[in-house]
Amino acid sequence: MAIMDFHGSSSRGEDIHVVYVEQRDARSAFAFAIVDRELPRIVHWGRPLSDPRTLVAAVDALRPQRVSGALDETAWPSILPTQAEAWTGAPRFVVRAGGVELFCRFTVTDVRIDDGGATVSAEDAEQGVRVLWRCELRESGLVRQRMSVVNMRAEELEIGTVELAFPVPADMTEILTTTGHHLRERSPQRQPFTIGRFQKASLVGRPDFDSSLLLNVGRPGFGFTHGDVYSVHVAWSGNSLMAAERLPYTSGLIGGAEALSGGEVTLCADGDDNRYTTPWLYGSYGEGFNEVASRFHNELRATHAQWRAELGVAEKPRPVILNTWEAVYFQHDFDTLKALADKAAASGVERFVVDDGWFGARRDDTAGLGDWHIAQDVWPDGDHSLKALADYVHAKGMEFGLWFEPEMVNPDSDMYREHPDWVLRPTAHRLPMQGRNQQVVDLTNPQAYGYVYGCMDALVSELGIDYIKWDHNKYVTEAVSPRTGRPAVHGQTLAVYRIFRDLKTAHPGLEIESCSSGGGRVDLAILSLADRIWASDCVDPVERADIQRYTSLLVPPEMIGEHVGASPAHSTHRATSQQMRMAMAFFGHLGIEWNLLKEPQSALDELGVWVDAYKRHRADFAHGTVVHGDAADPAVRVDGVVSASGERAVYRFTQLTTSQTYPAAPVRLPGLAPDADYLIQPLACNLASGEPFTQIGNGQSELGWWNSQGVVMNGGALDAFGLRPPCIHPANAVLFSATRV
C-alpha cells in the first residue's frame, strides 16, 4: 500500500491537504481533501492515478458554485454532512444534550497518517463535541471508514445518528439492492437513483432477511461482469440502515449507520463511557459485481487467516456436514442418530451436527429453550447418552456439532421461571410480542451472560464439541433491558460478539455457524467471528439459485452453508432431481440436510460420488474467485469459481425454467485468462446426467463437447462468444470444468 499527502492552496487562497491511498495490486485508490480545516471530502475513489498530486486541484475542479435561492455556499458534502456545510438532506449527525439537539460545525485539529490509513480529529469546541474519523484502504481494495464521537461537555450527550457517506460520480444513476423474507432471502430489485432518499433499515435486532447485504449504485444496466459499481456495507449485526441520497444541489451519496433508539447510547461527561464508535462502513468499487464481491471475499479470508494465526489453528479443508434438522427434526434418540451417523460416514461426511431438541423439555418449539442441560429423558446417562453419540461420531472419524440458540428463551422454561428479569421487555409488566414461542435473553445483564456462556463453555468441553450451529429465531423488538431501563440492542450485539470471541479463544479450533432462521444475520462483523453462515432455511435448489448468488456478493463460497436436501423440498414441496440438488450445493460449504436412512442405496451411492467430487475441488472454492455470468435469458444462470492460480475453473449452468430460446443459447464464461487456452469438459460426477435421452437432458442429438474428451477453447473466445450448454429440462443444472492447457 502507498500513502501520500500533498499540500496546496485553492483559488480562494484556502489551505488544502490531500491524503491519497492506493493498493496498486488490488487496482483500488482513494483520496480525501481537507479544505481550511473543514471535515474531509472524498475527491477520488476508483482506480489508482498516475499522478495523484493533481488531486490538490480537485478542490477547485469539484466545488460547486453558489446558485440563486440557496445558501452562500452550495452543498458539497463531507464524510459527515451537516447543515453547517449547507447540507439540507436527511440529518446525518444527531446528538442531544439535555434533550436538546446540537447543530455542530467541526474544525479539523489534527491529521495523522500511518501504515494503515489516516485518522482525522475535529471538534466543535463551543458545543463540546469532538469526532475522530478513521479511514483505511485495505489490501483487498475495500475502503472502510468509521467515526468516534467524544463528549467534552459537563453533561451527558445522547447519540442519535452518525451516518457516514461516500460520494459517487454523477452518472451512477441506478440502485440495486436485495429484499426478501424467510425462505426467500436476497431477491434483487433495481430502481433509478433519483433526487431524494432511498433507505433500507432493519430495526429487529439483526440485519434480517430483507436487508440488502450491499447497497449498490452504478451505470444503468450494470451487472456481474460489466458496468461501474459502487457499493457500501455496514458491518454491524444489530439495528442498522443503508441509504442512497441525492439533493438537487449534489451528486449521489451512499452510506449507512447503526440505527439507535432514544437513550440507547448516552455518553458520560467524563470517564471511560464518554465515547461512541460507529460500526465500520465499507465501500467497494469495481467493474461489475464480480470485482466488487471479490474484495469482500478477500477481506474476510484475510481476517480469518489472522484469527487462525492468533489462536494457533491451522487451516483445514471445509468438512462436509450432515445436519440432523430436516432428517429427524425433534425426534431424537440414540439408535436413530447412530444409524444416521453410519450412513453419513459412508457417504463421505466429515462433520455430524445434532440440531434442536437435545436439551431441557425441548420436544417441540414451545418449551425448554434456555435450559442448556442435556435432556435425560432423551439422552440418558450411559450407553445412550449424548456424550456416547459424540464419542461414536468421533470414533467414525467425523467432527461433532451441536445446535444452540443462546440469545433466546421460551417462557415455558426453568430459566424464565427462575429469572424473568433476564428477558428484554418494554415495561416491568409487559413482554414484547412473541415469535416462535420465544423471548430474548438480556445478554447485557452480566448474570444472564455468565449463565449462557458458562453452559456453552461446559458443554463444549464435556462433549468435545467441534462446531456450534448458533441460531437466532426471533425479531428483537421493544428491546429494553430491565437492568438499566434503556434500549439494549447495541449492548446485546456487543455481548454476542463477546461470546463468540470468548468461546473460540477458550477452545481453539472450535467453529461457529451464524444461523438466524436461515439468512437473517449476515454481515461483515458477525462473519469476522463466525466460520460460516446458513444462507437460508430453504434448501429447494431452484430457490437457492439466486439466494446463494446474491449472498455471494458479500460472503465467499466456503462460508456459505449449501446443503443437499430431500425431494420434494420440505419448505416448498417442489420436486427436483438429485443432480440439481447436488449441483446447487456444490460451490459453497457442502452439507446434507436429508434423512439418509430413508433413501435407496442408489441415491446414497450417487451422493457419495458427488461428495468425493466436491472434496477434489473445495480448496479452489476456499481460495478462488467467484464469477457469475450475465445471461440475457432470465431462465438461465451461469456461476463459477476460478482457482487462485487461474489454472482451473468449475462452472455451473442452471436451467431454472424453460427459455424462449430452444435449445439454450451459448453462454459466456467469465474469469478466464483471455490469452490462454482451456480444456472444457463435463465433471465426471454428472457426465451421464447431461447426455441426451437421460433423466435431466432433453436434447435429441449429441452435444459435441459434452463427453470425456471435451473441447479446447481460447479464454478470450469463451468470454466473448461462449459455448453452447447442454439442453436440459427446467429445474436442472450441470457442472463442467475449464483446465488451462
Automatic annotation (TrEMBL):
Which EC numbers does the record give? 3.2.1.22
Its signal peptide is none
The answer, when asked if Hydrolase is one of the entry's keywords, is yes
One GO BP annotation of this record = carbohydrate catabolic process
SUPFAM superfamilies for the chain? (Trans)glycosidases
Catalytic reactions on record:
Hydrolysis of terminal, non-reducing alpha-D-galactose residues in alpha-D-galactosides, including galactose oligosaccharides, galactomannans and galactolipids
Does Hydrolase appear among the keywords? yes
The alphabetical list of record keywords is:
Glycosidase, Hydrolase
Q: Which Gene3D superfamilies match?
A: Aldolase class I, alpha-galactosidase from lactobacil brevis
Q: Which residues form the Glycosyl hydrolase family 36 N-terminal domain?
A: 39-267
Q: Which GO terms describe its molecular function?
A: alpha-galactosidase activity
Would you tell me the protein name for this molecule?
alpha-galactosidase
Q: Which organism is it from?
A: Bifidobacterium breve
